[in-house]
């Protein structure tokens, strides 16, 4: 009876992981659906709101550079008790074109994660992707904000090993995310299955 009970418990865990892999993660939504954002961190503005960027050596947009830390929930991580993980940092820089400050950047993302649970087996995720950043830096006085569009094309595979049986759940897709980040170290914005954190170069 104990052996039978353990086997049913093992397959119950497998069913949960399978269902979660079909409905969790950054690629669970269609690329054409608008992302459900949790909203950006508070963005400082003047009473009249953010206005067009002025060209000035003291402009906070001038020669700005840094990177965007990309955190995602890879695969059915929540089903096995894992939190979102950082899969990479996307470098960017701001260049001036006339009176406009253009934001450009991009780079690869990759992660490899193995989670062992002696009760049922092994859960392994591999993730590879490529990103581009486009946008504009707008300022008003000492306040500035980055209005960005981040595009990511990625492939991931979730491998589950239970009682010697190996099952793979591949996933691929492209996602576009629009964010508005105040130019403050650690400013962040997140949505379903993802979180972006701003890091500024000194």
Helices and strands, with pairings:
Elements: H1 2-23, E1 37-40, E2 65-72, E3 85-97, E4 100-117, E5 121-140, E6 143-162, E7 165-182, E8 188-191, E9 194-200
Antiparallel strand pairs: 1-8, 2-3, 2-9, 3-4, 4-5, 5-6, 6-7, 8-9
Word description of this protein:
It is a single chain. With about 200 residues, the protein is mostly beta strands. It has one domain. It has one helix and nine strands. The chain has a nine-stranded antiparallel beta sheet with strand order 1-8-9-2-3-4-5-6-7. The longest helix has 22 residues. The N and C termini lie far apart (about 65 Å).
Structural key phrases:
mainly beta; single chain; 202 residues; 1 helix
Q: Note poorly predicted spans.
A: 18-24, 27-36, 41-55
Rg, Å, rounded: 21 Å
**Chain-averaged pLDDT:** 76
Distance from first to last alpha carbon: 64 Å
- Number of helix segments? 1
Give me the secondary-structure category: mainly beta
Summarize the model shown.
By secondary structure, this protein is mainly beta.
């Amino acid at each position: 009876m104990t052996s039978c009970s353990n086997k049913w418990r093992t397959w119950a865990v497998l069913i949960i992981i399978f269902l979660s892999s079909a409905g969790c993660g950054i690629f669970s939504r269609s690329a054409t659906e608008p992302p459900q954002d949790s909203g950006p961190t508070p963005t400082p503005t003047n009473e009249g709101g953010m206005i067009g960027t002025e060209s000035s050596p003291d402009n906070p947009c001038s020669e700005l550079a840094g990177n965007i830390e990309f955190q995602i929930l890879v695969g059915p991580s929540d089903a096995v008790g894992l939190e979102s993980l950082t899969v990479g940092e996307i470098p960017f820089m701001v260049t001036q074109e006339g009176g406009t400050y253009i934001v450009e950047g991009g780079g690869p993302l990759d992660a490899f994660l193995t989670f062992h649970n002696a009760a049922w087996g092994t859960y392994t995720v591999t993730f590879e992707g490529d990103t581009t950043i486009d946008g504009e830096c707008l300022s008003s006085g000492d306040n500035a904000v980055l209005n960005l569009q981040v595009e990511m094309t990625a492939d991931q595979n979730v491998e589950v090993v239970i009682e010697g049986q190996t099952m793979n759940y591949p996933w691929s897709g492209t996602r576009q995310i629009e964010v508005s980040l105040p130019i403050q170290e650690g400013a962040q914005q997140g949505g379903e299955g993802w979180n972006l954190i701003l890091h500024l170069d000194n």
